[in-house]
Each structure stands twice: as structure tokens, then as C-alpha cells.
Amino acid sequence: MSRTKVVPIPVMGRHHVNAYLLLGRRPVIVDAGTPGSARRIRDQVAAHGVDPADVSLIVVTHGHIDHFGSAAELHRLTGAPVAGHVADLGPFRTGRVREPYLPTGPMGRLMARNKNLHLRVEPFEPGVLVTGETDLTDFGIEARIMPTPGHTAGSISVLTGRGDLVAGDLIANSFFGLVRGRPANPPFHDDPVRNLASLREMLALNPTRLHVGHGTPLEPDRVRRWASREHRRLSRLEAAGRIRVRTEDRTPGRRDD
């Protein structure tokens, strides 16, 4: 099988919100962007010389509407099934995210007031229901879906055979890519401690680069240094009882695989 190539598909701005096209024996799309962006994604896929009808799978990394907002329409435009984790079935089936959003800092507190984040979008039923690590060889790429819970309970990432990690909102680029190469938390995490554990598990697999939902690609060594600082920060906040977590999403000592 040919090696998998990762191609960014900007959904909003140059890298404010990203989807990705994975190229192998057959193409796979990761994430479906904001509501109303399906045709833009389809057209960018075609601009890379790929017939959208050849897309074998659409992987949705988690149940926030800037990642699954156009999943139903993109499914209709390509005919490809949508893959999503069972723990985020609620948002997928209702078209609504779990409320409230839990901000990671000032930007999240500001963004939580944005009415566009609280809209109901077109729901969908995943044709491929993810419950654990999932090999994507049958869909034409050398890659695996990896459960990475924390940002939401059903967050997943895609790790290619070349070591590229398409990470959704496991980690972000500072200020949505305005500060290139600088790791940062996305505006929200349902469970920041669990998310950091998932991030460190992925870093232990020695990825070559992290491709994020918001911003430009990140180098693993820089993310490792950031993760060490974040671990110390979260430890202090936990000790002070200042971390908010969705109790329904957190199962101590358990991963979804």
C-alpha cells in the first residue's frame, strides 16, 4: 500500500478551522467543518485531483459543530460513510453539542458566548461506529483511528503509518494559528486532565508531526515541552479544586478502547 499523505483543507480562514484529506490507495477525509462548508471541502478535494466520489470514509474527530457541522451534507456529496466514536453519538444524533462548553481560558470564556456555537446542525448517524483503535487499511490508507478522549468523551485522532497524527482538538496552535508552531489548548476541554493524558499517550508513539483542527502543524518535541508545563499547571489547579470536568464523560482509569 502507498504511504499516506496528509493534505490540509482550510474550512475557515487559512488555518482557523481545518479539515484534512488523507491520500493513499483511496482518499479519506478527516473532519467535516462548520455548517455549510461541505461544498467548499468537496471542491478543495477535487482541486487536489481527487474525485469526491472516490472518498472511502469521512472521519469526524469529535462532537463539536466546527468538526461535524457539515458531516451529513458531505456524506451526501461524496457517498462516503461517516466514522465517529460511540461516546459522542449524542451530539451526532441530535445535532447539538453537550452544554455547557467548559472553557480552558479567556478565549474559551469569550467564545462560549458566540451563539453560532450553540446552534442545532443537521444530525447524522455514523456508518462506522468507533469503539476503539480502528485500522483503516480497508478504507485505502495506511493509518489507524486512535481514541483520544478528554476534549470530548468521544474524541479520536488518526495516526498514519508515516507517523503523522491528525489530532482534531487534542492540541491546538496558539490563537488558531496566528502564532505558528506554538502549542496551546483549544478554547474548550470537557476534561483537561484526561485530554492531557491522551496527548501524552500519542506523543509516546513518536509521531513525526501533529496536524491540528485549529492552526498550523506542530512539532512533537515542542508539544512535549508544552505538555510538561501543562501537567504542572493542571496539577496545581486540581490540588486547589479549580478544574471543572463533565462528570458524565469521565470514567477514572478507563479508556474507551
Structural class: alpha/beta
Helix content class: 25-40%
Shape: globular
Number of strands: 13
* CATH architecture term: 4-Layer Sandwich
> In sequence order, what are the helices and strands, one letter per element?
EEEHEHHEHHEEEEEEEHEH
Radius of gyration equals: 17 Å
Strand content bin: 15-25%
Number of DSSP helical runs: 7
Instruction: Sketch the major β-sheet.
Output: 6 strands, mixed
Explain what you see.
This is MBL fold metallo-hydrolase. Residues 16-214 form the Metallo-beta-lactamase domain. InterPro entries: Metallo-B-lactamas, NDM-1-like, RibonucZ/Hydroxyglut_hydro. It comes from Streptomyces antimicrobicus. The protein has 257 residues and is of the alpha/beta class. The chain has a single domain, classed as Ribonuclease Z/Hydroxyacylglutathione hydrolase-like (Metallo-beta-lactamase, Chain A). Helix content is 26%, strand content 19%. It contains seven helices and 13 strands. The strands form three sheets. A six-stranded mixed β-sheet has the order 1-2-3-4-5-6, with helices on one face. Strands 7-8-9-10-13 form a five-stranded mixed β-sheet, with no helix packed on it. A two-stranded antiparallel sheet has the order 11-12. A hairpin with a 4-residue loop joins strand 2 (17-23) and strand 3 (28-30). The longest helix is centred in the C-terminal third of the chain and has 20 residues, at 220-239.
